[in-house]
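Re: Re: ligand-bound prediction request (bumping)

Still looking for help on this. To restate: I need the protein modeled with 2'-deoxycytidine-5'-monophosphate bound, output as structure tokens. Inputs repeated here so nobody has to scroll up.
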Amino acid sequence: MKKIIAVDGPAGAGKSTVSKLCAARLGYTYIDTGAMYRAVALKVIQSGKNLDENLIKDIEITLDESGKVFLDGIDVTKEIRTPEVSRGASNVAKFGFVRKKLTELQREMAKRGKVIMDGRDIGTQVLPNADLKIFLTASVDERAKRRFEELKAKNFPANLDQIKNEIILRDKQDSEREIAPLAQADDAILLDSTNLTVEQVVNKILELAQ
Ligand code: DC
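Reply:
Sorry for the wait, this slipped through. Here it is.
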């Protein structure tokens, strides 16, 4: 059984949904690294200050087993899912000092093994020695539709065209940044989920994990 699983891919590809389910089925810990970049973005927004090393020097980000996210001890699970924080996360993710700090935390979390970690640079930078690497993608239209339905279900205001444009912008920003851009690792397995159900993707990953 593969002990460390890395799942990368663009926004809305279904990484967190399938990684969470795979973790539950394998008895593994799920680590959502996007939530960590979102927490940094929220900290910047809430502080009203410019992002610098000092602001995140002592930042505390905790992900608990139930999927809750804590920023400096406060539950921010809901607050980090707004479109404003999505944009902010993609912006803070460009800075080397932010990536360095979060990469260190992520490697520490993976040390205990039996983890499935999702993000943009897990297979390429954070855990280059992962036992299994998946690059999960889907068409832009399908990803926008999924995000739209997700936001609607949470009663956030949502507009499909706007979401699609934001996804295109985030994809561009995430894959063109200089440090640790979104990229498929050479040894990652490409999974296109456009025409697959969640269950099909989960089963495929579990098969590969055996
Ligand atoms: O997966 P997500 O949408 O929650 O991620 C939010 C942003 O964080 C995304 O636009 C890019 C950034 N991110 C990153 O740069 N590296 C990661 N490992 C995870 C997320």
